[in-house]
Write a structure and sequence with these properties.
heterodimer; A: alpha/beta; Dihydrodipicolinate Reductase, domain 2; 11-stranded mixed beta sheet; 14 helices; 36% helix; B: 215 residues; mainly beta; Lipocalin; 8-stranded antiparallel barrel; two-stranded antiparallel ribbon
Chain lengths: 467, 215
């Protein structure tokens, strides 16, 4: 997802002018933080602890805005300055000026304009695929075949078939594959997940999510051919649209939290502001029908930044709002008392009071600390996602090395079975989105985009999700 | 060719061929291995598990395992002299704790100084047969040898059973009790939110090891 190139960014405005927390405090809410519901005998969550990271040599293929963001995030790891931790040793883009422009983000990295040459570099252990979506398949599959661990941005592909090909290659590889559903690695989401699934908010009623950002998505270039290439998002034939490029993260959050796959989607799309010859809607709405009648209403637009982005889970006893990696719970007056929320921090949201769902909320109240506007989580979702990628890829490397040392590498099937156990253990310890999550989310997003493009209703077929 | 040289060559060749034919070498197999380390603590019992065991075992050529028989050919004074090497990579042993298993793994890897000593290694040199043996059941032994953990080696004796799940394959199961302090390991006492937790000195290494005959 490349969403950090907005011309008019409401988030920046909010951060500079009035903070989100201040705005929310004016409205009222109980913030959901990770310490409140943790078992009393568990260890303190080490949210700000910098873990020991093993060395992992990276190559990034695709140095557009997201490639640059990943390069910056890798460089921002405190461990990157040491021998261990992530080391970006190669960058690749088929447009040389893109490499030159981004050289400062990776001054020590070798530059390639052919991804095959990068994959031939034996010193590279992990590859990040952050090219335009329709180019993911060839590169991701080749990277796995070259024995690299792969971090592939989402959507996995612009077609269901290509996404399946990537998923198959990831499933059959002994190497580690993670897709760019970053929120799956964020500790705030990990805390909220059991909260939602345990039924603390009562029976699920419905969900709402939105992404509002005023930006054209169009990038200028003096070269007509280049202009066409870089504006692939505006070409209906290859663009996953707003639902795919942006919505996939939010649609995935709802499916993930509800542990359910939508049964059908109805979409509406139109070009209401950016009538510049594009054929991809700049505004969309969709209703995704989930089992038991709890539906998701989703909308996204490039034409208005008002109210930015958030996800809401409406439950019979309480509703939960997630905004910028903060979360609040709004209880119904007839809801049973959970207990801890009495002591939790509360913020005012217009006429409602929200309980903070976030780490240390009760502790802050107990020691008399004022509600802080800073997030309990000091890093971005991308940072946590890459951190878990490094830890899990290294665990898989260790499992492969141990296996080969004990038994050799002649029985690839037996090796794959052993490494599979290491992968399961790794995903459990350091949560991340694997190929199956990526395929599920990609199919939902692509079909939502199809429904939006055609203003129609599509029923999801099980075979779209199977490989 | 000198007749003496020819005869010597023939005898040596024959001896080599005979040795190759009689080899009784079993090699670790990638599937069918389990390691479980069980311990105690002031809070609750804990365990960790792995599926990697490497190494090999050599028996005297006369030794054959047939669980239908009451005894084993090749026993001398109820003992089998063997050559064996058993390897367990420390980092392959994982915690299946529901909450933060990585904490447990990190404690163990630190305690065992796994960066300097990445393997638990055992060399069993003698198996003492425990009679009587019931037909169809595994053979029971006391295994004696040396166990190396965290860079320190001690002599050990622990019970093992040898079963024959299929031709030319052995499943060796056993439990080796270990005192951490015998290996210079201070039982971990991690500091958690509600105070100090201390792990017990005694742990058990329980294993199930599958080896197959190779030439």
């Amino acid at each position: 997802m490349n969403n950090n190139e907005s011309e008019l960014n409401r988030r920046d405005f909010l951060k500079k002018g009035t903070s989100l927390a201040t705005m929310m405090a004016l409205m009222g809410g109980i913030e959901l933080r990770a310490d409140d519901a943790k078992p009393v005998d568990s260890a303190e969550p080490e949210l700000t602890k910098i873990p020991d990271l093993p060395r992992l040599n990276f190559g990034i293929i695709g140095m557009g805005a997201q490639g640059r963001a990943i390069a910056d995030t890798l460089a921002g790891f405190p461990q990157a300055k040491e021998e261990n931790g992530p080391h970006l040793i190669a960058i690749c883009d088929n447009y040389k000026r893109q490499l030159t422009r981004n050289a400062e983000a990776a001054p020590k990295a070798q530059q390639y304009d052919d991804y095959k040459q990068l994959l031939a570099n034996k010193d590279i252990q992990a590859v990040v695929v952050t090219t335009p979506t329709h180019l993911h398949k060839e590169i991701a599959v080749a990277a796995l075949a070259a024995g690299k661990h792969v971090f592939c941005e989402v959507p996995l592909a612009h077609t269901v078939e290509d996404a399946k090909d990537i998923a198959r290659a990831a499933r059959d590889s002994v190497r580690y594959f993670q897709c760019g559903l970053q929120e799956r690695s964020h500790p705030q989401r990990a805390f909220l997940l059991p909260f939602v699934r345990s039924g603390s908010a009562g029976k699920s009623v419905m969900a709402r999510a939105q992404w509002h950002n005023k930006q054209s998505w169009r990038k200028p270039s003096s070269n007509p051919q280049r202009e066409k290439e870089i504006n692939w998002r505006l070409d209906k034939k290859i663009s996953p649209g707003l639902a795919g490029e942006i919505g996939i993260h939010q649609l995935d959050s709802i499916s993930w939290f509800w542990k359910a796959r939508p049964q059908a989607v109805t979409g509406f799309g139109s070009i209401v502001l950016w009538s510049d010859g594009r054929d991809v809607p700049d505004t969309m709405q969709a209703v995704l029908e989930f089992p038991e009648g709890a539906n998701l209403l989703y909308d996204a637009t490039l034409c208005s930044s008002f109210d930015a982005d958030y996800e809401m889970f409406y439950g019979g006893d309480a509703s939960i709002m997630i905004r910028e990696n903060k979360a609040w719970m709004f209880k119904e007056v007839d809801a049973p008392l959970l207990g801890w929320e009495v002591y939790a921090r509360k913020d005012q949201f217009y006429k409602e009071t929200g309980v903070a769902l976030v780490a240390n909320a009760t502790k802050q109240t107990a020691i008399g600390t004022k509600a802080t506007e800073d997030s309990a989580y000091p890093f971005t979702a991308l940072h946590y996602s890459l951190e878990n990628f490094i830890l899990n890829a290294s665990a898989v490397t260790a499992a492969i090395d141990d296996y080969v040392q004990l038994y050799g590498d002649s029985d690839q099937k037996a090796m794959a079975q052993q490494v599979q156990q290491a992968k399961q253990s790794a995903f459990k310890q350091h949560p991340a989105a694997h190929w199956q999550d990526g395929l599920e989310a990609t199919v939902v997003a692509l079909k939502t985009n199809e429904a939006v493009n055609n203003n129609t209703r599509i029923k999801f077929e099980n075979e779209w999700f199977e490989i | 060719m000198n007749i003496r040289i020819l005869l010597t060559t023939l005898v040596l060749t024959s001896a080599l061929v005979s040795h190759a034919d009689d080899a009784n070498h079993y090699q670790s197999q990638p599937a069918g291995n389990k390691v479980r380390i069980e311990g105690t603590s002031t809070a609750h019992d804990w365990e960790m598990q792995g599926t990697l065991i490497g190494g090999s075992i050599d028996f005297d050529p006369a030794v054959q395992f047939d669980t239908a028989q009451a005894t084993i050919p090749g026993l001398k004074d109820k003992k089998l002299a063997i050559k064996s090497q058993v390897i367990i990579p420390v980092r392959s042993v994982k915690s299946d704790a529901k909450a933060m298993p990585q904490v447990m793994e990190s404690l163990m890897q630190d305690a065992l100084n796994s960066k300097a000593f990445p393997k638990i290694e055992c060399h069993v040199t003698e198996l003492t047969f425990k009679e009587p043996h019931a037909a169809g059941k595994p053979f029971d032994f006391d295994a004696s040898g040396e166990l190396a953990i965290a860079g320190k080696t001690n002599k050990v004796t622990f019970p093992v059973s040898i079963d024959v799940p299929e031709k030319d394959k052995l499943k060796i199961t056993g439990t080796a009790p270990v005192k951490m302090t015998d290996y210079g390991i201070k039982p971990p006492a991690p500091s958690f939110g509600l105070g100090l937790m201390r792990t017990g000195d005694e742990v058990k290494i329980i294993f199930e090891w599958t080896v197959a005959k190779t030439k």
